[in-house]
Specification:
It is a single chain. This protein is 31% helix and 21% strand. By secondary structure, it is of the alpha+beta class. The two termini are 27 Å apart.
Length: 393
């Protein structure tokens, strides 16, 4: 075993652009629990990309063919379970939207979309979607869906500014879903009930997968634990947000962190969230602010908290005005999507995205998202993964 680990280190040193960084003890998304001797830092184009190589990793499914069968099984089962739990209709989704409409997801406000001119529209610029967070709400208005029902899509996106690592790729695939709700449903209890339904869909998929692939032993707890980002800060004041997630998810295994995007008592935010879809500023019944959050699971392969979904009750006109003002983005009120929402032309909704490759990665016990999806990876990352038995598509 020691010889194998030494051989892996030598392989890393053999690459001109790859080094083992033993000084990194608090990597950006695995937190302080990861032993530094298993973390590679790849230096490519002046950009550092963290790569965690689990000790003694092996593909539980035996090979690529079984992995592909299991991926299909997860995707088929989960979307049926999700649709049944939330009463969702599948709809076809766009891969591009016109620029300047406010329809594309700004994510954290700094990521650049893939943009191009459309010749047949007099060179008007269009862009590849980051997500469909706002498009879905327009679609629900167009379809006239009644409260209690909604839609989901197979969303494919490109995010070229992602830092590539075990969890992040420039290619994003997720089930983007949105459901019409009543104004009186804009509360924390309704949010929690919806989260529990999604979690139940994940658990049912995990159990069904176990029947087909007995080597994939279920690991999820019966219930998901809820905590607000401010409570996390108070509990772990000396840790970074990602380290707080690791600490709480290590303990509870399945956690929903509430209030992502809103200011905490120390003036920081737990994580970035755009101002124009999730409601992270409305006071809730727990005495904090926010009607949104992230679903996090404990990943036994990566030994870290593992986000599979970002979701929440969406902004109403009052919350959008408040959040745009807080972010200094009031000029967005003149964009197409924002004008319609502020005019009361769009339904009240709850929605989110559930990563398809992420969920497959978790349920199939994979170490890298590149074992699930085909994307672009640095050659140095491919070499290091191959040496550790992690085969990227």
């Amino acid at each position: 075993m020691y010889f194998l680990i030494l051989w892996m280190f030598v392989r890393c040193f053999q690459s001109a652009n790859l080094r083992i960084n033993k000084e990194i003890y608090k990597p950006p998304f695995f937190g302080y629990f990861v032993p530094p001797e298993y973390l590679c830092t790849i230096e490519t184009n002046e950009k550092n990309m963290s790569l965690y190589l689990p000790q003694n990793y092996r593909n539980l499914l035996g090979g690529v063919e079984q992995t592909e069968k299991a991926i299909k099984a997860v995707k088929d089962m989960f979307q049926d379970n999700l649709s049944a739990q939330l009463a969702l209709l599948r709809v076809t989704a766009p891969m591009t939207v016109l620029s300047g409409t406010g329809i594309n997801d700004d994510l954290n406000g700094v990521e650049r979309p893939v943009r191009f001119p459309v010749r047949s529209l007099d060179e008007r610029p269009a862009e590849v979607v980051h997500s469909l967070a706002k498009w879905k709400r327009l679609k629900l208005a167009e379809l006239g869906i009644a409260p209690g029902r909604g839609i989901y899509t197979d969303m494919n996106a490109l995010r070229p500014d992602e830092d590539l690592d075990n969890l992040h790729s420039i290619y994003v695939d997720q089930w983007d879903w949105e459901k019409v709700i009543r104004p009186e449903d804009r509360n924390l209890d309704f949010l929690k009930r919806t989260v529990r339904r999604i979690y139940e869909a994940v658990k049912v998929t995990e159990n069904k997968l176990y029947v087909e692939f007995p080597q994939l032993v279920p690991a999820l707890p019966d219930d998901i634990f809820f905590i607000h980002a401010e409570e996390l800060l108070q509990r772990y004041p000396n840790l970074t947000p990602k380290e707080r997630e690791n600490a709480i998810v290590r303990e509870h295994k399945a956690v929903f962190v509430i209030g992502i995007g809103g200011k905490l008592s120390d003036g920081s935010i737990h994580d970035g969230r755009a101002a124009d879809y999730d409601d992270w500023s409305t006071p809730n019944s727990d005495g904090y602010e926010g009607l949104n959050g992230d679903i996090l699971l404990w990943n036994p392969v990566l030994e870290s908290a593992f986000e599979i979904s970002s979701m929440g009750i969406r902004v109403n006109p009052e919350a959008m005005r408040r959040q745009l003002k807080e972010r200094g983005q009031e000029e967005k009120a003149d964009l197409y999507f924002h004008r319609r929402l502020l005019a009361g032309e769009l339904p009240q909704t709850i929605g989110g995205g559930i990563g398809q490759s992420r969920l497959c990665m978790y349920l199939l016990r994979k170490a890298h998202i590149g074992e699930i999806q085909s994307s672009i990876w640095p050659e140095e990352m491919r070499a290091a993964c191959h040496a550790a038995g992690v085969e990227l598509a």
